[in-house]
């Protein structure tokens, strides 16, 4: 992650400006952590400033609001370095590389799919595309197909975006988002193939795997008749687990292959082949047509809250419901009427992380595109009850 270290930072008067960035305000927690709210090209993000035990500061982007394209974050950090007159002792930022920052047309935020995405041709989805070899190969081979690639590893995303531009590949959309959540708001019967190649096995934490009964049901809903969900893995445990999940279906057409050769291999597969490891394929074919679903919206708060009461009563707290939770992790105070609460919430096996921004009695999510999935709606209601219990 882009960052720099400094043994001195000038005290800032907010708001202040440097380059294309505006620094709006800062907030502090009782744990000694500090956040600075910044805005660049209309996009908000938080900078985290950590005091080091040996003295000085570590300055980096906060994980929750970190932009997918590292170039944006690097530019904001460079602007903060300049406006704070930092005495830099270490930096992994390359200034010359990021003088001209632009948004890739192939990278889409999640709210694009919630509000603006139109299905105009068949869709194929790759979950966890890694180096992007398979995704890029399939997109070039099938220019009539709209590809959606999901990945949370930001260097991999940067690599694929760069290759799309260099190779002139225009039928890929890249999303930095949890695939298990993403599946819930794709339209029904529009996807031809879903690829899950070499997912993290999570042998000790199987609840973190992409594959689950709920995931398979959503995959069958979005697939058209004869569309396929395709797992490729080197893990015998993951293969057995996924196969058994499919066998729990009331009706299923499942094909299993071992050590099948593909036209293109990933860097992981190259490694496993050199080690003479077995590769397993499980292919589930959809046999049913699903009902259409309503377009999914986003969540928002319309209640007024009293930040002074929240400040007095806040404590780290974990609230659980039936299959979902809300974890109020840390409170950051900016002034008497403004602050942030870092939270995680959603389904037990997959969750969101964000901040609740409280300003002049109003609450909003940061980032603001929190989709109204079933588990998110339940967690959102629990948050509203929590605010009501404190403020009334």
TrEMBL record:
CDD domains: AdoMet_MTases. GO terms for molecular function: tRNA (guanine(46)-N7)-methyltransferase activity. The keyword Methyltransferase applies. It holds the Pfam family Methyltransf_4. InterPro entries: SAM-dependent_MTases_sf, tRNA_(Gua-N-7)_MeTrfase_Trmb, tRNA_methyltr_TrmB_bact. It catalyses: guanosine(46) in tRNA + S-adenosyl-L-methionine = N(7)-methylguanosine(46) in tRNA + S-adenosyl-L-homocysteine. Keywords: Methyltransferase, S-adenosyl-L-methionine, Transferase, tRNA processing. Its EC number is 2.1.1.33. Substrate binds at residues 204, 234. GO terms for cellular component: tRNA methyltransferase complex. Pathway: tRNA modification; N(7)-methylguanine-tRNA biosynthesis. S-adenosyl-L-methionine binds at residues 126, 151, 178. Belongs to the class I-like SAM-binding methyltransferase superfamily. TrmB family. Catalyzes the formation of N(7)-methylguanine at position 46 (m7G46) in tRNA. This is tRNA (guanine-N(7)-)-methyltransferase. It comes from Sulfurospirillum deleyianum (strain ATCC 51133 / DSM 6946 / 5175). The gene is trmB.
């Amino acid at each position: 992650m882009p960052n720099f270290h400094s043994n001195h930072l000038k005290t800032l008067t907010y708001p202040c400006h440097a380059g294309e960035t505006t620094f709006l305000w800062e907030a502090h927690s009782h744990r000694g952590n500090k956040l600075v709210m910044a805005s660049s090209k209309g996009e908000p993000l938080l900078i985290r400033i950590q005091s080091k035990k040996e003295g000085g500061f570590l300055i980096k982007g906060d994980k929750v609001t970190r932009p997918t394209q590292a170039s944006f974050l690097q530019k904001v950090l460079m602007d903060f370095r300049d406006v704070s007159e930092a005495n830099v002792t270490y930096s992994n930022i390359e200034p010359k590389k990021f003088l001209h920052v632009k948004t890739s047309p192939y990278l889409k935020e999640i709210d694009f799919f919630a509000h603006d995405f139109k299905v105009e041709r068949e869709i194929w989805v790759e979950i966890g595309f890694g180096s992007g070899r398979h995704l890029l190969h399939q997109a070039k081979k099938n220019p009539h197909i709209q590809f959606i690639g999901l990945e949370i590893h930001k260097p991999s995303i940067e690599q694929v975006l760069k290759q799309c531009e260099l190779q002139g590949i225009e039928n890929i959309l890249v999303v930095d988002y949890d695939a298990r959540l993403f599946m819930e708001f794709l339209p029904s019967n529009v996807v031809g193939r879903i690829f899950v190649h070499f997912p993290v096995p999570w042998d000790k934490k199987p609840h973190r795997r992409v594959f689950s009964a709920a995931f398979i049901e959503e995959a069958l809903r979005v697939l058209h008749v004869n569309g396929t969900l395709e797992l490729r893995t080197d893990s015998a445990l993951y293969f057995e687990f996924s196969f058994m999940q499919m066998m729990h279906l009331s009706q299923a057409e499942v094909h299993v292959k071992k050590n099948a050769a593909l036209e293109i291999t990933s860097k992981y597969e190259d490694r496993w082949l050199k080690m003479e490891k077995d590769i397993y394929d499980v292919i589930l074919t959809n046999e049913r047509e699903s009902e259409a679903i309503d377009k999914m919206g986003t969540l928002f708060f319309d209640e007024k809250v009293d930040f002074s009461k929240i400040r007095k009563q806040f404590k780290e707290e974990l609230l659980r419901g039936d299959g979902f939770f809300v974890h109020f992790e840390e409170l950051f105070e900016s002034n008497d009427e403004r602050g942030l609460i870092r939270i995680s919430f959603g389904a037990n096996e997959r969750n969101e992380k964000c901040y609740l921004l409280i300003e002049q009695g109003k609450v909003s999510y940061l980032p603001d595109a929190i989709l109204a999935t079933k588990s998110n709606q339940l967690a959102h209601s629990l948050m509203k009850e929590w605010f009501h219990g404190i403020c009334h």
